[in-house]
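Researcher: Next sequence.
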Amino acid sequence: MASSVLAIALLVTTAAARDIVFPPVAGFEAYQTPLGSGNDVDIISGSAFSGLTTFANLPYISCFDDKSETEKYDIAVLGAPFDTSVTARPGARFGPGGIRQGSRRMAAPMSWSVYTGKNSFMDWAKIIDCGDAPLTFLDNTVALKQLQKAHETHGIPKFWAVTCPIMRTFLHIAHEEGLILNTSIHAGIRAPFIRRKGDMRNDIRCGFETIKARQLDLIGVDGVIKQIRKRVGDSKVYISVDIDVLDPAFAPGTSEVGGWTTRELLSILDGLEGLHVIGADVVEVAPIYDNAGETTVLAAAEVAHSLLTLMVETPVKT
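Model: Next structure:
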């Protein structure tokens, strides 16, 4: 049910208020019925809290078993539980599970957009959850090789959703290997540099333009969208969303203040409709630093949903 702010006018009358009778069952699934005499117990359907926790309650398929035949699909969600290359706070290895937790209220029949009237889960694409790639936490080199192999197994990428191992390596090396073009852009940048001028120069060398976080206050959401679209043009696009682009108010695990709101980020992503998105990821989600309301994982799940929607809306031939 869509959330909204309601303005209610109360009329004082002398008439007695009518009785309101609620149905005797929860309203999560319309086909649930009260258990009566002669009824069997259904343990297959009707609960959002049973079975495996997949992203948006999507079907699970084992994508890494060479001995089993895998069903055909168009888009695969793949988790990468990896955080041993961070310079500060670890914890993102639990990000894939956290994002799935944050997506539990999503499901194909209940995902019609209030803004577009579309439902990316009930369009042309068969979307599945492959679970997590089996990555070691003892050796970064081995872990990156494992993630690369996980993507190659059963030809996972037609599309995939978890950046660097997919393009083989870190971004500056990916540039040096010719894997990314001079049409790239960073958006929402605000962290201090390690090198006064060297970091920005290296970004330019690697083919990246930059939109700083506070530029949004000057050019607005539409201005950010236009700058991104102008930069990437007709290129095939891979989108990597570091959840740190959000302010700590909207992603408590973020250590850099002055970021964007969740609504601003989602509006920017929605404004990229029509780009040739071949893949995407959401990274740096560390549930251990989240709050009791699961603010970060809820935001990350919605971001992942927006990224999937971009892929569905504009199919890319591979």
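Model: Strands lie at 75-79, 127-132, 160-161, 184-189, 208-212, 236-242, 276-283. Residues 9-14, 156-168 have pLDDT under 50 and may be disordered.
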